[in-house]
Amino acid sequence: MRGFVARRLLVAIPVVLVATFVVFLLVSATGDPLADIRTQPATDPQTIRLLEAQYHLNDPVVERYVYWLGDFVQGDWGTSFATDRPVTDMVGEAAWNSFLLVGTTVVLSVFVALLVGIVSAVRQRSAFDYAATGFSYFGFSMPDFFFALLLQLVLVVWLREQFDVQLFYVQGKYTIGEEGNLVNLLQHMALPVATLMLTTVAAWSRYQRDSMLDVLRADYIRTARAKGVPRSRIIRHHALRNALIPFVTVVAIDTGVLLGGVVVVERIFSWPGLGLVFFTALERSDYPVVLAWTALATVFVVLCNLGADVVYGILDPRIRVGRRAAPARKSSREAGAPEVVAP
Amino acid sequence: MGRKAWVVAAMASLVAASLGGSAAAAVGKGSSPAGLITIGAEEFPPVLNNFSSEGNGQWTGMVVGPALARGYKLMPDFTYQPWIFDKDCAVVTPIDTVGNPPFTVRCTLRPDAVWSDGVPLTADDFKFTFDTIMNPDNDIVSRLGYDKITAFNVVSPTEFQMVFAEPFAPFRDLWAGTSTTVLPKHVLEGTNFNKVWNSCICDPKTKKPISSGPMMVESFKPDQQVTLVPNPNYWGTKATVSKVVFVPVPDSNAEVNAFRAGEVDIIYPQNQFGLRKKIEAVDGAHYTSSLGPQWEHFDMLSTVKGLDDIEVRTAIATAMPRQQIVDRLVKDANDDAVVLDNVMWMANQQQYEPNWSIYPASGDVAAANSILDAAGWTTGSDGIRAKDGVKLSFTLGTTPGNQARELSQQIIQEQMKKLGIEFTIKNSSDILWKKMTGFDYQTIIFAWVGSPDPYGNNSIWLSTSIPEACPPKQAKNGSCDSSGQNYTRTNVPAVDQLLNEADREIDVATRTALLNEADRQLAVNAVTVIPLFQKPTQLGYRGTVTGVRDNPTVDGFTWNIEEWAQT
Lengths: 343, 567
Fold this sequence. Notes:
The complex is a heterodimer of chains A (343) and B (567). With 343 residues, chain A is mostly helical. In chain A, 72% of the residues lie in helices and 0% in strands. Chain B is an alpha+beta fold. Chain B has 16 helices and 23 strands. In chain B, helix 8 (310-319) packs antiparallel against helix 10 and helix 15 (493-504) runs antiparallel to helix 16. Chain B is globular. Classes of the chains: A mainly alpha (343), B alpha+beta (567).
């Protein structure tokens, strides 16, 4: 197992290199950190020259990437062009906030998706199943940013304007003066988490449903039924445990992807996380911050994939992780649209 | 944990969440506590140092402006009102003939001006600020005008004199505007200005806030919050609000939602369609809009084949449907929006004369066609005019994603088709730097930022400000001068002469006349930059806040923060 983990971590290195280099190329080709001051007539040309030299803006792109990489591997993530703060400080502070959002989303999504998936499978073609399918289509087709704004309009603006009540919030992590208040934090987290959950629950619940249906059709379940084992026991002890194995791996993989998805949501809710830092940095062509985020997100995805493999091995003793090729898996997003339930 | 325990825990969590929600619903009415005003900032200031390249944005100025006084306050009508100065600075050296003593400006300070820690604000602070600006090691975004000062003499604690090698009329601009705040010598002397002024406006040793204005920057959490509190030792009218907090709301739709929900009391978003109606629909909310210092324009690179014929540029200006652009793009936000007919002065400045009205605002296609016919540009079978093998077919670029500019492009493209001039829209994100500075464009739409005094815009018009197109290697080793911002390669000797003369002319009326004449020359003999309109500001504030007044200059809407109150 250790050897397997070590190998996977080593594989992550070229992945991080490629990802950061591609992002560096794109950011360098499309943006200029000095764009704003260049279009101000009073800007001192000497200052522009000084900054160009300081940021190596006149050097070839590859050379600039090597400068960044050289510092990065030594633990120096550089200084933000825009804020003049160490990138490690900016990213470190925001990472906790993002993980809070992502972590809560994952935990709640697992709970809801499992529940919906199991009930849908057990009561296949019932009204609940159709409703859950409809919800999944809605979740898949609804863009994050649109749903976020919709939630804001209905659950914040409408409630406020019609009833003068504020259950949830549009922006930030805390209301001013309420810093440290857990309830206030939850009220601020509610809508961003709900937005992120829309897609995850839609996907995971379908995955769990399909997985559960497969298991319920298996011979050993039929045998159990024939032997008179109670239905509830069959579902909990025989079907669910086996159906959980692919579900858990999908959750682990998708969690990595969620860090990317959180970018839009954090911006709309002004949530002070990595996504907001990344988005702002991208607008300013602040590539030390953009690259740090890319590296962090890449490592996170790799770790989540690794976690999926490890968990898969633990849940299913038949699989000897590290001795054979890892089982073929798909993220829920790769799995495609949910199965259409026949009428 | 057993199954029952899990169920109990889950139930308890749900009950707790419900109770929490109810409790919050009972107290959470959304509006700010008494005396607290919350402002949603679309572009949250990355740093607080308004002199630096990073902190040169308008939001930084509006955040730190109330904490750092200037010599003059810029008024909404673009005039200068003495603030730290006790009266308007005066020219003390007569300049009548060549060889006279240098041009000297004398400024006197209010004797009661003090820093928040009680230390008097003196001429030494002005001298220190000047030295900081001119220090080549400091990241200072603009040294324009300061570099003309040959000597800075502190005469007494309340008086200093600036000596210039030659007459310098726009001297007021040196101590007006939020990027010219006076720095506290007693706390900043001996520190690294590039570092200590970025994250706090404070004494670097004690970290206590320092201020010379009505408010102090109590705290700055990057990308999260800036808090201003009243300066108890302010020597002017004291602020009555207990706290002003800026929070980031980068998404423009979410910004409006936050305003409607009462999470923020004031918003000052970028110009966007339909915003006015949304703000006005909020119960008790107020909406105001002013014509700001940013002005949109259509530029033609005068060395491009076809565009190098001034008759072609004149025809384009004659047919330019500027009124249609204003009606479609700006009227929604501001009823008073007009076509801008001057590139020196803004329409709401006293010195403004509509010199570009020689080109009909609605665009005269027939007249434009006549100009082109007379110049020998004939229409080919493809409907495009040509002469001597040169076709009137150009690219029209701007930054992608800017709805207003993209709409302007379409309007212009349609109109110019009627002249037999083809415009192909070619937008790219690097158009304002790589392409424009490298002269790799033909026509372009973007905005310049004006200032109360047109001096700051000289580098757009002077032939000496035409930058060289520098390959990176040459720029790097300094063998090629890419400075200057005359990106249209405008070269009208009369304009050079008039602008240089205006810089030396201290008589306001004469100077205004010179600058308006330069503008007329640009309209007739250059026709490279066609002014379109001033971008309107959009300010929304809730009915619970009083005293807020917009200021379209760089001082922004926080210019009179001491007059604000929360009801």
